[in-house]
Design goal:
- The chain has 359 residues and is of the alpha/beta class.
- It folds into two domains: 39-144 and 267-328, D-Maltodextrin-Binding Protein, domain 2, CATH 3.40.190.10; 147-263 and 338-358, D-Maltodextrin-Binding Protein, domain 2 (3-Layer(aba) Sandwich), CATH 3.40.190.10.
- Helices cover 39% and strands 16% of the residues.
- The strands form two sheets. Strands 1, 2, 3, 4, 10, 11 and 12 form a seven-stranded mixed beta sheet that branches. Strands 7-6-8-5-9 form a five-stranded mixed beta sheet.
- The termini are far apart.
- It comes from Clostridium aromativorans.
- Residues 1-24 form the signal peptide.
- InterPro entries: SBP (IPR006059), Sperm_putr-bd (IPR001188).
Length: 359
Amino acid sequence: MKKNPFKILILGITSVCFIFALSACSIQSKPTSDNSEKVVNLFTWANYVPDSVVNEFEKQTGIKVNYSNFSTNEEMLAKLQASRGSEYDVVICSDYIIEVMGKQKNILMQPIDKAKIPNYKNVDPQFLNQVYDKGNKYSMPYTLGSQMIVYNSEKVNFPIRGYKDLWNPALKNSLVLVDDPRIVLGMTLKKLGYSMNETDSKKLDQAKQDLLKLKPNVKVLDADTPHNSLINGDTTVGFMYGSQASAAVKANPKFKIVYPEEGMNAEEDNFIIPIKAPHKENAEKFINFMLDGKISNEATTANEYVNTNKAAKKYMSKEYLNNRAVFIPDSELKRAERFRDVGSATKTYDLIWSEFKQR
């Protein structure tokens, strides 16, 4: 049968339009590439990367930083799982949660191409190749956090040298502790001579009973600002992060810093790139910028965490170097214990902590 040329024309036009429509849809649905959008989506704790550093990166590169924050590593992981690693470009998170993610069937991190980050050479080797990410396949260190004892030397009339001293009955209703189960239980386990990552049920039960004995001495649990209760005089002794202890000492020079004789904890916070980061090239540029020695020093001077960058040392001020809360000797850091993924024992930790807080 002879075909109507008008119909053929209409069909041809319709087909062309359909093809263009499909192409347009394809273009719209394709994730924006590094070359077409000058953006990097950063996900970490609030104020962890100082505004001055963010502004300098934007000025040097023309890449805008979209800063989103989380409160806990667990919250970060939940959001990364919900987006399947496609919403953020750079995440700064802790070592043990990287170990958790590395064990999952669907890895939410992508390997970092070290050739794209030449400032990786600036990282102090003692902070590399840790058990949570051998060879630093997925992560690069940013800073290190640690907890320590800080106390008012005018109000405590006996020497405090370690965790065991916090159980002294003379400190009844005098302690402030950072509100974190792994940290406080880790302290208790260390006092008993065990690992901070203990999973043995009998040892954990022993730690539980010992922790409950500490409760009469505890007046305040505070995750964010435990130093405030020391400064305002509500408490006289605290166990908290170095940056928080530093704030207390700056407010009152009578406060003394103690590195617990039983051994400290050390937590490395790292840069990772999610598996489906929409702006991978910008993520690499951001990490490389952050590992510059001068920039690294600027960041840790502001957030008062331990600097992990050997190239930053020449920029450090005397004030930073003399601050025992944030410039911890290598001798202490080398014997410090890192938190590990404790697997199913996590539930036991949570139950112990819940009972402790309810007492």
